[in-house]
Each structure stands twice: as C-alpha cells, then as structure tokens.
Amino acid sequence: MKRYGWVFAAVFFPALFAMNYVPADALLILCAAALAILAALILLRKKLRIIPAPLCGAALFAAVACYTAAAYIYWIPAQALDGKTIEASVQVVEEPDGARCTVRVKSAEVDGEPVRVPGKIVCYIYGETLQPYDIFDATLTLRLPGSGSRLRRERADGVFLYADVQEHGGPGRPDRLPPGSAALAVRAHLQNTLAETVGGDEGAFAAALLTGDTSGLDNAVVNGARATGLSHIMAVSGLHLSILNGFLLVLFDKLRANKWAANISCILFTLGFMAVAAFTPSVLRAGIMSIILFIGRLAGREPDSLNSLGIAVTLICAVNPFAAVSVSLILSASATLGIVVFSPVLTDYVRGRFKIPAYLRWAVDTAIVTVSAVLFTLPASVAYFSEVSVLSVPANLLVSVPVSVILVCGLLLSVCVFVPGLNLVVAFPVKVLGSFVLGVIRWLASLPFTTVYLKRGPTLVWLGFTGVLLAGYFVFRRRAKPSKRYLAALCAAVMLVSALAGMFGGRDRLRLSFLDVGQADCSVARLGGSTVVIDCGLDSSNTVNTLSSELKAQGVYSIDTLVVSHYHDDHAGGVASLLRSMPVGELFIPEQTDQAAVKREILNTAQERGVTVYEVGGEMEISVGEMRLALYASHMELADVDENERCLVANLHYGDFNCLFMGDAGFQTEDYLVWKYGDLLESEVLKAGHHGSNTSSGYAFLNKVRPRLIVVPMRAGARLPGAEGLARLQSTGAPVYQTGIYGTVNIAVLPDGRFYVEET
After folding, report:
1. Residue 476: how many CB atoms within 10 A of its CB?
2. Which pTM was predicted?
C-alpha cells in the first residue's frame, strides 16, 4: 500500500467536516461507533481485503485530536471573551475592505489584567485609511461571529471574534515590516502595472487572474463568471499554477538549465505566488501539490496526484481544522479529485469509442477535464449556492487558451514594465484577449437559462451524487457486472426521488427570509406558490443579486407582491433594479414622501414593466395566496413627521402566526399603532424598526407586540443597532438575531403556528 496520503485524508477530512457540524454531545457517540466499526474491520481484514483499517483509525484519532486542540487553543478562549471589553494594541493583517478591517491583537488587558485574544478579529474602522501591518491602540467590545454558516465561514478563515470599536488611536507603522510585506508589495506592483499599462476592465481582469483580487472588476462581470461556471479562473488555484509553472519549465528547458535549478526555482516561484495570492485555501492546496510534485522530480519519483491531494488537504486541515468547511477548499479539492480520478477514465472511454482528430484533442481534453471537475463539485455547489451552470463546458472551451496567454503575459509584463516599448508589446495580447474573455462572459451570462437554481437543503446533495453515479454508470456499463449496474441505477433513482422530494416538499410551510444585505432591509415571505417581498435594500448588485439568488434557489422566478416601506435608499434603492430584473405582480408604496425623485423613478419603472401600483395612504389589507398582509399608513396623518415616520408598517398573518415589519418607524409611529391597534399588534416575530436604533422599539410598543423572536437587519460593525435600542429589544427575553452577525435569517412556520429558525 503506497498511497497512504489519500487514504489518510479520505478519513481525516470528512471526520473534521462532520465535527464542524455535529454537536459535541453527539460527536462522542459517533466517534465511539466509528472506532468500534474500525476495530471490527481490523479483525475481519483478511476476509474483507479492505483499505487498512489501522490507518483509518489513526486518521480518525488525528482528526479528533486536531479539532480538540484547535477548540482549546482558539474557540473556547474566544467564547470566554464574548461580551468583554478590552484595551488592546492591534495590528492590521489583511488588506482592509472599505471600513472592514481584520486585525490581530498584539497585547490586551481586561480590567488591568493581561489576556490572550486568539486568532483574528474583524472590526469596522470609519474615517481612517489603514494599510496592512498598521498598528493602533483601541478599546474593543468583543462578540462571537454569530452562528450557523457565518460562524463556520469565519472560523475557517481564522476569525474567531468580531469587535465593536468604542474608540481608537491613530495608526502607526511598525519599526520593521514582516516578510509578508514583500508579497504585498509584489501584489501591488502587479495590480498597478496592469492598471497603468493595460488599463480598463481588461487590466482589472488580468490582475484578478494573477492575484485573485476581483475588487477592480464590475459586479456584472463577477456575477456573469459565476453564472457561466468561470468563477474558478478568478480564484487563484491549480489552473493558474500549472500554467505558470508549465511556462517556467518550458523556459528552463529552452535555457538548458539543470534539473535542480529548474525545480528549485519552480518551488520558490510557487511559494512566492502563494504569498502574493494571500494564501487562500485554494492556492494553498494547489501550491502544496505543486511543491510535492517538484520535490518528487528531484528525488526521481513518479508523480502521484491523488496522494499529493491527500497530503495537501491533510496539512491544511491539520493547521486549521475549521478549514474543513471552507467552501473554497471543498470546491478546489473536489474539482482536483474529479480531474485526477474521473478524467483519465472518461478520456480512455471517449478515445476508445470515438476517433478524434489530432487538431480537436485539446478541445476534447479540456471538455473532459471541465466535465470531471463540474461533476465532482456538483454536490458542494448545490449545497452551498443552490445553483449549477449549464454553460460551464462551452465557456471553458472558449476561454481556456486566452486565459493561459493572459496569465503568462501578465506575469511577463511585471518585468517588462521597466523596458520602454517592450511593455506595450506584451500588454497588447493582454488587452485584446482580456476584451475577448470579458465579452464571452457578458454574452453567455445574457443568454436565458444559463444557470439552474435548486432549492437548498441536504436532500439536494443527493442530486449531485446522482449525477456522479449516472455518469459512472454510463462510463463503466460495459465493464461492470449486471448486478452492479442495476445497483448503481437503483441508487441513482432513489437519490433523484429524494432530491425531488426535497425540492417540492414543505410547500405548506411559510418561509420567512431576512436577507443579509448590509445596512439595508430586504425580507421575503414564501408560501406555496405565493411570494411577498418587503423592501429591496440599496441600489447595488449585492441586494438585488442576493434576493434573486434566494428566490431562484426556491424555484421562484416572479414576485406576486412587492411592498416598499418608504423611500430611503437602504429600503427602496434597489426597487427599480428589481423591477427590471424580475416580473412583479403588484407594488404597494407609501402615498406621502419627501423623496419625490426616488418615488418617480419607481413609478416610471413600474409603468415600463407593466406592474400594478397601489399608493397606500391609510389602512389596507390584501391576500397573497394563503397569506394575509395588513398595511398600516394611517400615521401619515400626523403632522411634522419625517420620512421614517411615513413608512408603511406591514403585518403578515398566516393562521395564528403574525410577523410585524416595522420598516424605519420610530417612537411616533409606534405610539400611534399602540393607540389604534393595541393588542392586535401581538406578533410571534418582529422585524425591528430602524435597524434597532435608539429612536425605535419603545417599551410600550414592545409590551403590546410581545415578540418571541426579533430580527435586526444591520451591517456587522455598523453604528446601528444603538446600545439603548438593542437593550430594549433584549429586555423582552426574545432571542435577537442580527443579520450582520448571523447572516441571512430563515424562519420556517408550520400551519399550526409553530416556527423555528433554519440553520443556513
């Protein structure tokens, strides 16, 4: 048995993945059961001729040990600091994203006593221009990064705490920059060179290929790449390293460099490239595999890609066991596994069945590699994104060669920039081919049905495996025994039925989604075939795309009823864009406003799209399928009210269940509603007014609503919710879910009125 790496990883990685999801009390039982099974397999090994059970047991033990160690080193100390205020000296460790800043605590005190703060912290610093490695003093109130998918995503990135910045000093530079600063300088040099020499979207695209930084690209390009299955070309991974290292090996061969010089140079280049790409999980996986390959070449060993993949995944997860749920790592490892395991078999099958001309083999090989990667990433794509691109194969065929040329020329340009005239020659193919690739992305993304959206949920993972099984059945149907073929077909049928049941089941449940769209508001109510959307956040692709993806993931391609609470940008900014991108049946808007321009744009867009518009100036009740929606606007009769107090308050009814959407309403509106409706305001779920500000959610109002769960739409680290407003909400005893901490909050409501929060 020589492939110990992939055997070990085949147990180690799934075990870590399960530990990130399984509660601690159940985990002990599962581990005990797994060890008992392994012990039995060891006793029966001679008869079963299975993969060595002792190695699997060692992998399972290592997974438990690594996860436990990480929990004690990072997670448990982080939990102990939840809610604590510290005086700290912090250092910026990543390129700030606007106000969002990732830091490490160099030293900290709580009540004068030194304390260790584990891992990285995310905070928001306003009014400062920060750079990586800047140091400053700050007073921070620490909190955990929510739960569910957001918690797992942050832990996978090494972030264990968020911080609310109470006050901070001015940033300063350290006396000596760490070695990592050189990689940042190279990264900045690449980006500046491409921006100045190539320019435009083409330069930003080339920079994204080389560094993985897509901030310079238009959102339409990023979303189009995702829709066409080309996102991987802008996520630095094995594709980029194989192209660049292949170019270097050809160059060394032409220069007749010896084996040691060529391979060691490639190892050093790989390490440098990993640093420039910020050591993301996908580039780490690719880099480790590449380094193992070059070390093997130096040692005169045959490459074993499957073993290298296992070693790479094991090393990454051993350093950070929480990385086992990293989406980028899962997708990267799955794609590589498909290419390594499935593409050779599929290649042999295709070449055995069909006579392919030599000039078409590269296209066929590219298609096979793409199909293999797509099939093996299908379960993760469905589970995490609820979407599958149907144009991935033709898209990759069209751009594979241009992307390779752009990568090589972009790298050469960083050197040729110092040679006048030569830089323009090298920049020319980057400009031309970049324009071609961007044109392909935009064109394919504009075609209908480029993406298949599927409902989220564990059942849809079965759909991915169904595809793999069916593909395997067709590939191996001539080799497999009839019993095995029938078994594969039966398993595929069962899995497909399970997936379809998951897609169409639960239609009698009301599903409420409070979307995580930053400091903005966007909520969805879905029951059966009826859909209600309340507000549509900021006029940015983030809000509209998040809403569109959420709806399409549920099989919804049109909106029955759209309610706009008021005309501030964080509630109505995306309405016009939404009307243009998705059919809407009826639109309900406030009658009065001091935002005439915003209202006029919405009305004009609605008229262009044939949407029926109702201007509400009083009380109105409507039915949307089995849902009833009461709209309250009578408070507009009050004098001297601002735009927040003119908003429509929506009360959604489903059987005995009520959900109250307060928009940005403040004390004045709340007092009016309490006076007019009293106990009728009682609701199981409350979407807090004005993002939980200090001027909303008064005690008298909360005493009438008596919520059992409260949702506060907010951006992590923003100035809202206010401390006083949040305290009043918490005083109700109901759990308070902040979207900036927990991410999108999904609530399932049963016909009898019971409800629960779905984990995302």
Report:
1. 14
2. 0.78
Task: Compute the radius of gyration of the chain from its Cα atoms.
Answer: 28
Question: How many C-beta atoms lie closer than 10 Å to residue 116's C-beta?
Answer: 10
Tell me how far apart the terminal alpha carbons of the chain are, to the nearest angstrom: 40
Q: Categorise residue 107: left if φ over 0, alpha if ψ from -120 to 50, beta otherwise.
A: beta
Kindly report the backbone phi and psi dihedral angles of residue 389, in degrees, each rounded to the nearest multiple of 5, phi listed first.
-80, 135
Question: What's CA 497's distance to the chain center, in Å?
Answer: 28
Judged against a pLDDT cut of 80, whether residue 489 lies above it is answered with no
| Annotated domain spans of the chain | 4-78, 81-168, 182-342+395-452, 343-390+454-505, 510-758
Q: Report the alpha-carbon distance of residue 4 to residue 75 in Å, rounded.
A: 31
Tens digits of per-residue pLDDT, 330-352? 888 988 888 888 888 888 888 87
Per CATH, domain 81-168 is 2.40.50 = yes
Amino acid 493: pLDDT: 64
Residue 756 burial by Cβ neighbours in a 10 Å radius (0-12, 13-18, 19+): exposed
Q: Do domains 81-168 and 510-758 have the same CATH topology?
A: no
DSSP string, 515-539: ---SSS--EEEEETTEEEEE---SS
CB 537 within 8 A of CB 523: no
Please report which confidence band the pLDDT of residue 468 belongs to, taking 50, 70 and 90 as the band edges: low
**606 Cβ contact partners less than 8 Å away, ≥ 6 residues apart:** 579, 584, 587, 613
Which tokens hold the place of 511?
């599903």
Model confidence at 490, in pLDDT bands (50, 70, 90)? low
CA-nearest of 66, 83, 108, 69 to 161 is 83
Average pLDDT score over the chain: 82
Structure tokens at 377: 């990433």
CATH class of 510-758: alpha beta
**DSSP sequence for 225-262:** HHHTT-GGGGS-SHHHHHHHHHHHHHHHHHTT--HHHH
Question: Residue 359 corresponds to which amino acid?
Answer: Y
Instruction: Measure CA 502 to chain center.
Output: 22
Neighbours of 36 (CB within 10 A): 10
Q: How far apart are alpha carbons 725 and 71 in whole angstroms?
A: 34
713: closest CA among 456, 553, 586, 538?
538
Per-residue pLDDT of 565-597, as tens digits, reads: 989 988 998 898 889 888 999 999 988 777 778
Judging by DSSP bridges, how do beta strands 85-92 and 135-143 pair with one another?
antiparallel
- pLDDT exceeds cutoff 70 at 757: yes
Look up residue 716 and give its DSSP letter.
T
Q: Quote the tokens at residue 53.
A: 């059970």
Phi-psi region of 555 (alpha: psi -120 to 50; beta: other; left: phi over 0): left
